[in-house]
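Re: the multi-chain job from yesterday

Posting the exact lines I submitted so nobody has to dig through the queue logs.
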Amino acid sequence: MQDHTTEQELRDRLSLIENMIAEGRRHTESWGWMFVLWGIAYYLAIAWSAWSHSAWAWPATILIAVIVTVILASSRVGKRPGTTLGRAVGSIWIALGISMFLLFLALGLSGRLTDQHLFVAVVSALLGMANGASGLLLRWKVQCACALVWWVAAAATCFGTNSQSMIVFLVAVFLCQIVFGIYGMIAETQERKRRGPIHA
Amino acid sequence: MPELPELNPVVHGRLRLALLSLLIGVEEAEFTWLRTKTEATDGNLGAQLLKLEEAGYVAVQKKFVLRKPQTLYRITDSGRQALTEYVHALKRLLGQAIDA
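And the result, structure tokens for all chains:
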């Protein structure tokens, strides 16, 4: 067989193996829509709480976002193969979601969610942790950069005024949820277009 | 001159190689997922998967989820070994091509 096999063909086979292994293990970019969805949810919750000062603004918005996420994700998960890496990344985000929901629901209902700086710092630090862990697991520099933005936001919000703290949070949400999410969706679409069909 | 390694013809097929490489990174995968990733036609994909199954490189499990049929494929130990040996042979061949 080798007599007819050119060096280029051998390289092509090696490249195919690498690409397909990477393809099988890559999952996060397919979740770009979720980052955008949650970015919008944060903006809606901020707008609602600023407009009505309701203690329900955050818990209600987060609950709706959770329901939408579960519905959309369950329709996609069934089509995906299970990997240890995928489960690890998924577990980080599920645990983050549960922690944030329980913490802010309890704080909101008990009337102790009064310090905006602390709220933004805790949310930013938690999101930094999840993005950092996920980015390190996937060796995805863009997501590690998002983690860095969240951590900087968490630290910066402790020092400014209320409005500065809110601006820091809005910017972090825009960069790490909306921009990162759209980047993920575009990257996935481009990858699909770039890769042609594989024939026997 | 050292003897050139043989490339396993079952693994060497482009689509079969892509399938084994995809399956080595996951625990199991649905037919539809493999079709999306390879962009192969149903007929071609089914035929190549059958060849891999006959060689003992992939195992198939058919089940019903919410009354819908689902075909799951996973790489077997022989398939994993065959792909590993193929990569070693490929690298040796490429090394010799560079040395030549």
